[in-house]
Structure formats: C-alpha cells, structure tokens
Design brief:
- 42% of the residues lie in helices and 32% in strands.
- The chain has 3 helices and 4 strands; from the N terminus they run βαββαβα.
- β2 and β3 (45-50) form a beta hairpin.
- The protein starts with a strand and ends with a helix.
C-alpha cells in the first residue's frame, strides 16, 4: 500500500545559501534517482511509495549526505492510511 513521506533536509554549519541549496540538490538527486513519484516543494519534498521503499530512500539520503555535510537535520514525516495515500489526491483540489 502506498503512502507519502515528506522529507526536509536542513544543513547546519554551512557557508551561505549556495552551499545550502547545493546540499539540498544532492538530496533531491537521490530522491529523483529512486524511481519513486515525488514532488519538490519550497520547504520539503514529498515522495510516494511503499513504506519499505521510503525507508530505503531515507537510508540512501543519509548515506549520501553524511560525507558531504558536517551536520544536518533530516526531518521525515509519513502520511499513512488504511486505504493508502497518494500525492495526487492530496493536491488535486489545488491544481
């Protein structure tokens, strides 16, 4: 059953906006290469998939970011429902 996961990377101990955006772009690159459906927003990226796929994705982001950034916060929020959840149904009314 598909659910959604919102992911927010907050790099700490960095020098300026360009470095922050570059690190966020690296994390989004991991998401894009996962093959899962995703939607980039201004403050977080939402990904749709099976729970196990999303956990694997979080682990891949962790592996990618740890050598690139001395310290960061990785916020992860899962939206789960018995009948499943998808990005399209969540934003349909706004598109």
């Amino acid at each position: 059953m598909k659910i959604t996961c919102s992911i927010r990377l907050l790099p700490l101990k960095v020098e300026g906006k360009d470095q922050i955006y570059g690190l966020v772009d690296e994390a989004i690159g991991v998401i894009a290469s996962s093959g899962l459906k995703y939607l980039v927003g201004p403050s977080e990226t939402t990904v749709e998939g099976e729970f196990s796929q999303l956990l694997e994705l979080i682990q891949e982001i962790y592996k990618k970011m740890t050598p690139l950034c001395d310290r960061y916060v990785l916020e992860v929020v899962f939206d789960c429902a018995k009948d499943g959840v998808n990005i399209d149904e969540k934003i349909a009314k706004y598109r």
